[in-house]
Amino acid sequence: MKLIYTVIKIIILLLAVINMDAVTFSYLPGQSVNLPLIVVLFGAFVVGIVFGMFALFGRLLSLRGENSRLRAEVKKSARLSGQKLTAPPIQNAAESAKQP
What we know:
Elements: H1 2-18, E1 22-28, E2 31-36, H2 37-81, H3 93-98
Antiparallel strand pairs: 1-2
């Protein structure tokens, strides 16, 4: 795995060295700055990561709410039926990834 990370880092470094040409980046009408292409590409990558995290955060909150609702429903069903039903224990992402 370490080898794969090293290869990826070398590829990124080579792309950074190759893409040192200056490009004009216009951030407001009439406002622009000359930056190396790799800086513009890296900035776009970071902005994409931030937007992706915000999109996933909303989905995470909705899934947590649904999970809580379903656990409450299991407890209510167990209480009404008189059987001893229990919801499975809460697992974190690392534990659930280990299970088949």
